[in-house]
Hints:
Blueprint: H1 19-39, H2 41-52, H3 56-72, H4 74-84, H5 86-104, H6 110-139, H7 144-186, H8 188-193, H9 210-215, H10 217-248, H11 254-278, H12 284-301, H13 308-321, E1 331-332, H14 333-354, H15 358-373, H16 377-380, E2 401-402, E3 412-413, E4 429-430
Parallel strand pairs: 1-4
Antiparallel strand pairs: 2-3
Amino acid sequence: MVEDSPNLKTAHRDVDRGYAWVILTCSFFLHLMIYGLTTSPGVFYVQFFRDFHETHGSTAWISSLLTASSYFVGPVASVLTSRFGCRRVAMVGGLIASFGLFISCYAPNIYYLYFSYGILVGVGTGIAYIPSINVVAHFFDKRRSIALGIACSGVGAGTFVYPPVTHELIEHFHWRGAMIIFSGITLNILVFAMFIRPVPSSGSTPSVPFKHLIRSFGFQVLCVNNLLFLFGLSVLYTHVPALAEDILGEDDPRATWILAALGAANTVGRVAFGIMAHWRRLNGFMLALVSFTATGFAVIAMPYWRSFDGLLTLAIAAGFSCASLGTLTPQLLIFEGIGQLLGAPVAGWLYDWSNGYEASFVTGGVCLAVAGLLLVLPIIWPSKGPIGSPGSPESSPERVTVSVAEDQTDLIESTFQDASPSPDKTNMVSKF
């Protein structure tokens, strides 16, 4: 292996061929393990609620902290990746996540799990995620949007694989034993990270000061869009296993497969939207608008279609349509983290208040649908000056970008320029 250094320029770099496909394969499996951990808390949620006898709202903070921590640590992970390289940072993230899982098996109460499972595992997965996606952008150019779609399909694959595996491990080894086993599995992040070759530094990328961005109408819409959408997804991924048990009956094994089906559909959706984003004639902006709104309506309907077939159908629809996030639109990690932090606990409190999941899923679904409908605003009021539009004060360059890190080429661009993202705008992760 070549020493991983962010400033080391490799003598030969495969782009869109050769070792780039090894990088893509590793990125896929890193996504699988990282997001398998961050989406399986819905299965653990039911066990934590039964064992610790806390309220739904208090218990939901565990999974909420996990996903929110993984987003909040994104800016730090970007800086670390720029300074120390993708391989080292991904390995450190894997170690932290594995350690958090291991010590979680000794949890005496949910407050211990807030730190061990919620914060430690979340920070570890968040640190490992940034290099796992950024490295793909370095090794793919013409096929970048397709490559990113394939890599990010590991998100859905993790959601498909981890919930049923988690259920089986809990059945045989209790949830504490499952934590230890997942701790060992998570160490495989280090294995795949070792195959990441160093990438050459491309120098600094022109960026727009945050004070200019925050005044842009388009950027403001995108911030609210990300926050609301992740609020709704937090409700969906955390509470759908419990909703399924509420409808199908306690300990019904089919309840776990609802979340798995959601993950399988998300896998297909990531690849499909990645391919669609590569088609320049397709209006990716409008496609994102429709898919976001469709996700909301599917979530709203879930507590009312009270059958396995109904839940399965809606889970597949929601899983596929929500895959457009990050594939067709940029991701703003801080605002996504806020949404993730609030969504699951609010849904839990609504359950405690109403003694049912109707209010929880309607609230989550409305947030998802509104997130989609908000994307209409820059079209209705283009004079407000979205990022990159002629009316915005910061639009003198042809396009406006925000650097993820000093040596990153995967940049966030305006989703609202010409209302149609180019392939370079797909799966962007902002340090904001």
